[in-house]
Here is the input.
Amino acid sequence: MAFHFGGRDAVPELPEVETTRRGISPLLEGRRVSSVNVRNPNLRQQIQTELPQRLAGLKLLIVERRAKYLLFRFDSGTLIVHLGMSGSLRITEPRTCFKKHDHVEIIFDTQFCLRLHDPRRFGLVLWTEEPPQHHPLLRHLGPEPWDKRFNGDYLHTVARRRRAAVKNFIMNNRVVVGVGNIYASEALHRAKVHPNRAAGQISNLRYNAIVVAVREVLKEAVDLGGTTLRDFVRSDGKPGYFRVQLRVYGREGEPCTCANGIIRQVVIGQRSSFYCPRCQR
DNA sequence: CCCGATTCCTGTAGGC
DNA sequence: TGCCTACAGGAATCGG
Here is the structure.
C-alpha cells in the first residue's frame, strides 16, 4: 500500500491540494496520532520542536482546506500544512523506507503513516491552538473561488484605481485564493483578457468573465483530480498527476485555439506568463 | 495601502 | 559525459 497525493511533477495548486485532501481524509479522519517523527525541521518555517508531543495521542477530527492550506483539525488545535512548490503527502505502511526529502511522518493508529515529501522545502507544518482562520498566515486571505462573494462586482470594486497587472491582481491571495501562476494564465486566456492590462481598467463585464473562467479552469482540474485518485488506487501509487489541458501555459510559439494568433511568453511580476495577442485584449 | 523586487530551495534542462 | 548556469514557482517580507 502506498498512495501518493499531491504534486510531484506538478506544482500543487488549489486543485491538487483539494485532491490531496480528498485522498487522505477518508483514510485518516477519526484516527489517533500514535507518534510523530520529524526528520528535517527546516521547512519554510522551522517545525516547532514541541510538535511531536503536542500531537501524540490526539484524535484527528477532520481534514479541511483553506486556500492551499490543509487544516488537520483536532480537539485542542489545528495542524496547518502547506505543500509549497514541491510538497506531496503520501500514506504508507509504517517502516516503509524513507525517500530522500521525506521530512515529516505522522503515524496514526500505529498503522497509517502520513509522510510529507518536499524537495524544495517551501512547505509548512505548523501547530496552532487558536482558530486557524485567526492565524496570521490565514487571516488576510480573500474568498475561495466558489464563494458567492467572489464575483464580478467584487473584483471590479476591489480593483478600483489599482494599476497592477490583472494577472498579478488575481494571483493576490488577499483578492482571491487558489489562483497560481499556471491557472492565472489559463483563466485570463479563457476570459480573453490581456494579462498585462491594469486591474483598475477592466470592466465589470470582463471581471464577470474572469470569475467564470477561474472557476471553470479550477473545477476542471479538481474533476481531473478525481480521476487521479481512482488511478492512484488502481495503479498502486504511481503518480500520473494529470493537469487540465493547458491552452497557453508553456505553449510559446504555438498557434492559439482561436487560430489567429501565436502564443507569446512574457514576464509579468517576475513570473512567466503566456497569452494570445490576438484574442486577449 | 499598494506594488515591485527579493528571498527561500533543489531538480531539471540547456549550453559548451 | 560532466560541469556550469539559468530557470521554475508560493508567498512572506521589505522598501519605496
